[in-house]
Amino acid sequence: MTAKVIDGKAFAANVRAEVAAHVARLKAEKGITPGLAVVLVGEDPASKVYVKNKHASTIEVGMESFEHRLSAETGEAELLALIDRLNADPAVHGILVQLPLPKHLDAELVINRIDPAKDVDGFHISNVGLLGTGQKSMVPCTPLGCLMMLRDHHGSLAGMNAVVVGRSNIVGKPMAQLLLGDSCTVTIAHSRTKDLAEVCKRADILVAAVGRPEMITGDMVKPGATVIDVGINRIERDGKAKLVGDVHYESAASVAGAITPVPGGVGPMTIACLLANTLTACCRANGLAEPKGLTA
Ligand code: NDP
């Protein structure tokens, strides 16, 4: 079997186009422009690239982008004061603090200072609790993107066996909650899981969010399963820098029914879902109907 390739790049382009169309209508009919504030503390090169991409994507869909670049020495009080100002600013509907923060700053404290209604990353403890109890929340972007692709591919996910490898707060756990919300039978695997291959092989839906290059190989995949590879790993092969996922693509694709590639799978969906979340937050803040198909 050769798996169908789930084209995250094309899917994300469609999501962004949908968001842009919705934003244009909001502007024309209500005079409202959704706004996203991104806060970057320090000079981490990868974070700088992410923030630059987020800014460009925000502008591209017609939203306002507010960038706040602070020095690596910024103190906690100063950062919290900025978040308070953004919380109070009616032009700002979404707030994202780029992680990781410099070591002297308490990320949990900072994230939990964001108004949960503006927490477009979905990391605030209130949003985590709302998602965990099946209530309306802001949903973390990467798992939301995975869910959208899975719904698009399968229609209903009810009754499917889903295995999520990885239990981080930003990917693994919310992914598992979302799959449970769509009535999958969910297993979460992690570094202490016994016989990971056997656990993975039971999955109709296998989500890899491990951070280990090409760890999930074809012999761990059930024939016909849908494989979602969240991993982004920079490796060197044959003297060249290369981006690979947590799944060994060639061997998994020869067994799976469908698979997301790296790059071009989950990655592009993350920014698209950030824009979708900002639009959702803006609609909720203004008491307007939420865009269909762009939330969990
Ligand atoms: P974390 O490092 O926070 O979590 C990794 C998880 O994998 C942990 O729960 C860990 O288990 C588990 N794990 C580690 N080794 C093994 C193993 N040998 N067997 C089974 N489980 C294992 O990573 P993240 O969740 O933040 O990210 C995961 C991957 O997704 C990374 O490659 C990251 O770059 C990528 N990513 C991609 C995004 C995108 O936009 N596409 C966004 C965010 C992340 P334990 O808890 O027991 O330690």
Structure characterization notes:
This protein has two domains: 30-116, Rossmann fold; 141-268, Rossmann fold, CATH 3.40.50. The chain has ten helices and eleven strands. It has helices at residues 8-30, 45-60, 76-88, 107-111, 125-132, 141-154, 172-181, 196-201, 249-253, 266-285, and strands spanning 4-5, 35-41, 64-70, 94-97, 161-165, 185-189, 205-208, 226-229, 233-237, 240-244, 258-259. It has a six-stranded parallel β-sheet. The chain has a three-stranded parallel β-sheet with strand order 3-2-4, with helices on both faces. Strands 9-10 form a two-stranded antiparallel sheet. Helix 2 crosses helix 10 and helix 6 runs parallel beside helix 7. It is globular, with a radius of gyration of 19 Å. The protein starts with a strand and ends in an 11-residue tail after the last helix. The structure holds NADPH dihydro-nicotinamide-adenine-dinucleotide phosphate. NADPH dihydro-nicotinamide-adenine-dinucleotide phosphate binds at residues 142, 165-168, 170-172, 189-193, 196, 209-212, 230-233, 246, 266-267, 270.
Please give the structural blueprint.
Layout: E1 4-5, H1 8-30, E2 35-41, H2 45-60, E3 64-70, H3 76-88, E4 94-97, H4 107-111, H5 125-132, H6 141-154, E5 161-165, H7 172-181, E6 185-189, H8 196-201, E7 205-208, E8 226-229, E9 233-237, E10 240-244, H9 249-253, E11 258-259, H10 266-285
Parallel strand pairs: 1-11, 2-3, 2-4, 5-6, 5-7, 7-8, 8-11
Antiparallel strand pairs: 9-10
Residues 142, 165-168, 170-172, 189-193, 196, 209-212, 230-233, 246, 266-267, 270 line the site of NADPH dihydro-nicotinamide-adenine-dinucleotide phosphate (NDP).
